[in-house]
Amino acid sequence: MGSPQETKPSRPKWRLYLLDAALLGVLFVGRASIADHYHVPSGSMEPTLAVKDHLAVDKRAYGLRIPLTHTWLTESEPQRGDVVVFDSPIDGKVMVKRLVGVPGDRIAFDGEALLLNGQRVPQEQTADGARLELLPGAHHALHPELDQGPAMDEVEIPPRHYLVMGDHRGNSADSRVWGLLPRENLLGRVVAVLYSSREGLSGTERWWIPMSTDEGTGVDPRLTR
Prior knowledge:
Layout: H1 13-33, E1 35-39, E2 54-58, E3 83-87, E4 94-101, E5 106-109, E6 114-116, E7 119-120, E8 123-125, E9 131-135, E10 138-142, E11 152-156, E12 161-165, H2 175-178, E13 181-182, E14 186-195, E15 207-210
């Protein structure tokens, strides 16, 4: 005769709820403090970022924050040329721009080119017609139209503030409009386009387009189209 089959005791429901809550907490903290993804709402960063591009954002790049606050537990310095995600100082909406000025820099814009510490930042035209700005440490594409006003008089950037602009400067409400970006408003650094539906790309070209290559001296051609 066979012995009666033993039944495993069921796990108490409160333990299951606790496990679910713990997993949700890990996901929440991860998205709030470690990594996240965003989509691009406007054309202010064209051609680098197109409308509806999905972005991979490293939220540890500038330190660790208490989730849902602007309080930093640890800090590391942003670099000139970083593409950053931040809370708007005006209305709190999440924005994405390029960080072009760091504390101590003197920055001006004449409507066509940046002037960094008294020197005009050079630009060049590639063989395929892309317009590049040779920002020290972060060469990147600009919108091809030369007139990209409004202009901006020279400002010297104080500690814990940054100057940000769109790569399509003629279509960007940025530091020229609402002033310098406080460090506390930073959310993270864009490391890549996760997926882009922009014209000119097909198949695997649409996936994982890094923001910088070759230590900032090269530009992925997918970001200039």
